[in-house]
Amino acid sequence: MKLWEKNYDLNKLVEKFTVGDDHLLDQKLVKYDCVASIAHVKMLNKIGVLTKNECDSLVKVLNEIIELDSKGVFLIKQEDEDCHTAIENYLVKKLGDAGKKIHTARSRNDQVLTALRLYYKEEIKSVIQSVDSLSQALGSFKKKYCSVEIPGYTHMRKAMPSSVGLWADAFIESMNDNKQLLLDVCKLVDQSPLGTGAGYGLPIKVDQEMSAELLGFDKVQSNPIYVQNSRGKFESSILHALSQIMFDLNKMASDLILFSMSEFGFFELTSEICTGSSIMPHKKNPDVLELVRAKYHNVVSCEFEIKSIIGNLISGYSRDLQLTKKPVMDGIEITKDCLAVMILVLGCLKVNSEQCKKGLTEELYATEKLYELIKKGVPFREAYKKISEEYETT
């Protein structure tokens, strides 16, 4: 039975179209919806909707569902629509009237949002851990090769001397900023929407603070209209933070692809992370880096997709918002996968110090020569002109 079901049959095409892929996506949310439902059940017991026995029975079966889900045997069917319906149907089948009472003081709208917020919080923490691991991998790489000098480039032309340590540090510092951005987004998401109904409150007094505290939320998101308006807004903020991580991975991948070319040879990619050509037997290709580079655009497109969906909607809930679920889930998985791959790449990455030394050609030191003249009292403009003349070509 669907949560909204009435005394008529829905056209099967309409049913398939409106369900979309929610029954598949929601496998990720079963645990979180059960956790939220346990808090809701305890709150309903406190306000007198459920007896102590009903509360205990529901909590026991909800934990049973969590266990089944962890074993991969609690499957959501298309006719269930989503995890919320599948869970309630299971409770009704097991407990009868007690299961039928669980939706009291709750709309599927705030139910969906609560499960998603719990999922987001856990996934953001997981991404933060991966960001820390990447920074550690960069730190280890830097420690091993920090003293090796390499050419620095502007406009893709040799500019001034740089070093492997300076290159690695640039990404470590950026990851620190990305981590702060993730922490800020996590604070934004850390608000409980449970108890706001479909967006206009409830005709029954509930204890939102109790539910929020049981679920570990930092605060209650109290305005019911804003609860619905924040859906998509919070998701796009998550994806923006993820896109900043992916931007750095894109740039890192681009650097490694370029500077591991035989024409440069500063970096070397070991065989275990390179693929081959189906026709050219000598090839060892940096496919893994090329895919990381491309997946930045996937995450940016997820952010843009959500921002496009939520634009021009009036305040309150619209079914359009169902389509914001997949992009954010995709963006999280892509980012986690790319972080894991780049940690692996850094562990396999080598520096060819001889090739780096060959790349340190004389023109890289032109600015240094300029400042040697300045130290001798030559005005900057005169010194600049004098040194530039040494590098003029006819």
Largest sheet entry = 2 strands, antiparallel
The strand line-up of the biggest sheet is 1-2
Kindly provide the name of the CATH class of the largest domain: Mainly Alpha
**Can you count the beta strands?**
6
- The average pLDDT is 94
N-to-C SSE series? HHHHHHHEEHEHEHHEHHEHHH
Which percent band covers the strand fraction? 5-15%
Multimeric state? single chain
In the CATH hierarchy, what is the architecture of the largest domain at level 2? Answer: Up-down Bundle
Shape estimate: elongated
Helix content: 55-70%
Regions with pLDDT < 50 over 5+ consecutive residues?
none
The rounded Rg comes to 28 Å
Number of domains: 3
Structure, explained:
The protein has helices spanning 12-19, 22-25, 30-46, 52-70, 83-95, 97-101, 108-145, 164-189, 208-215, 224-229, 233-259, 287-310, 325-348, 353-359, 366-375, 380-390; strands at 149-154, 157-163, 191-192, 219-220, 267-269, 349-351. The chain has 3 domains: 12-101, Fumarase/aspartase (N-terminal domain) (Fumarase C, Chain B, domain 1), CATH 1.10.275.10; 108-359, Fumarase/aspartase (Central domain) (Fumarase C, Chain A, domain 2), CATH 1.20.200.10; 362-394, no CATH class. The protein has 394 residues and is mainly alpha-helical. The chain has a two-stranded antiparallel sheet with strand order 1-2. The chain has a two-stranded parallel sheet with strand order 3-4. The radius of gyration is 28 Å and the shape is elongated. It has 16 helices and 6 strands.
